[in-house]
Description:
By secondary structure, this protein is mainly β. The protein has 2 domains: 19-200, outer membrane lipoprotein receptor (LolB), chain A (Clam); 205-556, Peptide-N-glycosidase F, N-terminal domain (Jelly Rolls). The chain is 9% helix and 41% strand. The chain has 6 helices and 32 strands. Strands 1, 2, 3, 4, 5, 6, 7, 8, 9, 10, 11, 12 and 13 form a 13-stranded mixed sheet that branches. Strands 15-16-23-18-21 form a 5-stranded antiparallel sheet, with helices on one face. A 4-stranded antiparallel sheet has the order 14-24-17-22, with no helix packed on it. Strand 1 and strand 2 (37-38) form a beta hairpin. GO terms for molecular function: hydrolase activity, acting on glycosyl bonds; oxidoreductase activity, acting on paired donors, with incorporation or reduction of molecular oxygen, reduced ascorbate as one donor, and incorporation of one atom of oxygen. Residues 207-385 form the Peptide-N-glycosidase F N-terminal domain.
Amino acid sequence: xxxxxxxxxxxxxxxxxxxxxxxxxxxxxxxxxxxxxxxxxxxxxxxxxxxxxxxxxxxxxxxxxxxxxxxxxxxxxxxxxxxxxxxxxxxxxxxxxxxxxxxxxxxxxxxxxxxxxxxxxxxxxxxxxxxxxxxxxxxxxxxxxxxxxxxxxxxxxxxxxxxxxxxxxxxxxxxxxxxxxxxxxxxxxxxxxxxxxxxxxxxxxxxxxxxxxxxxxxxxxxxxxxxxxxxxxxxxxxxxxxxxxxxxxxxxxxxxxxxxxxxxxxxxxxxxxxxxxxxxxxxxxxxxxxxxxxxxxxxxxxxxxxxxxxxxxxxxxxxxxxxxxxxxxxxxxxxxxxxxxxxxxxxxxxxxxxxxxxxxxxxxxxxxxxxxxxxxxxxxxxxxxxxxxxxxxxxxxxxxxxxxxxxxxxxxxxxxxxxxxxxxxxxxxxxxxxxxxxxxxxxxxxxxxxxxxxxxxxxxxxxxxxxxxxxxxxxxxxxxxxxxxxxxxxxxxxxxxxxxxxxxxxxxxxxxxxxxxxxxxxxxxxxxxxxxxxxxxxxxxxxxxxxxxxxxxxxxx
Length: 557
């Protein structure tokens, strides 16, 4: 009996040895599950591994059906190097090298074991960005690798468990007698890991650079060139921009980076599109003077140029309203104890609602910073498009209604003081057939920078549609002190406060102002009226208040 057992043991040892010798490589297929449920319509992860090299990829990539960009991960076990290869475009790929990450992985090992696909697995635990990761690996197959970079050097990883709810488990193991052709590092010029991550990130969206560190100042020397138009003594810059086709469901962001180039004050800024769909446009006013723009009157004896839509004119469509801080960058030499000033201010806002106005269009995009300083400001503007899934939804209806921000202030456009009487701002608009679920995007900020000015007073804004109140709120910001480090030139008061700390009418020095999205419900096709009412304060001497409000209508198909 003992002889028979000995022969059986020798036979099994020989079989296992033979299997290991013929197993030049292994292919493992993994499936993902979350909270105990297998994820639907998943692209299975694949691992190909040999004695020297492993490749983590996916089924779609190997079938050449993956959307760009995609990436695959190689691990060179001889040099302990992680190599990440990304296909950014059809004709562009990059290879990122990391010689340290594999060796830096730290684990806690357990005596606990379990069977996965009939192989005995050991458990190792680690933490990544505060996530607990359990790794189950086996050494019974003689090769290493895994569905991610974690634990690749421990053995063959058959399961990873993140926080007990997100699990990747081997569903199939194939012993390969030859090393597959995919187990070969692509002949591509390598870059450092930081550059690799940056290039991969940027390949995932479309970035449209509009302005790059352009000066926005007040000077008679400001001149246009072939690409950038300058108006109002240089306080307005405009450029024609061509947008690609943008799928419904995509995310669109506008971002601005701003620094003082000599101006110490907090200033109103705006990023806008100039609609060109009617006989007259704001561009005509920029080129020919503010008096060429259509006039709005409400009975207060003043004429307000280019602020409301008419049958022959569409006002500026505001993409972002922002406010410069007090002298960031240029005045950073004004030192205070324990204050490290910011080098610039970065503003970013979601403008995805405006997809119908931008998709496959060539439009004029402009930026304004009100100032009377020869140095002024320097600013950059980018628009990024992050593709979403096209849900076959037909384009929304976008109708610019009003914009009282006097973008041409430095060329004579009057301040928005029309709210000094009961009528405020009132206009008519027309709703076409076939739309529903209307909304109003409404942006408002109060101005008048003295003690009793509306900048520092809480004033209720009320919106009326066809004479009925549909929305009312008091725009107010109480968090302005959060941005103190962007305001080196802010005035300091005897009570220990700085001007940039003070609460304001819906804005702070160094921030954007978010629009309010107001539900209007159903609007019957045909003409309607909208009225904006604000109890604006009366002038005191040479000081007066004003309210910059902009709004556009949105209707769904």
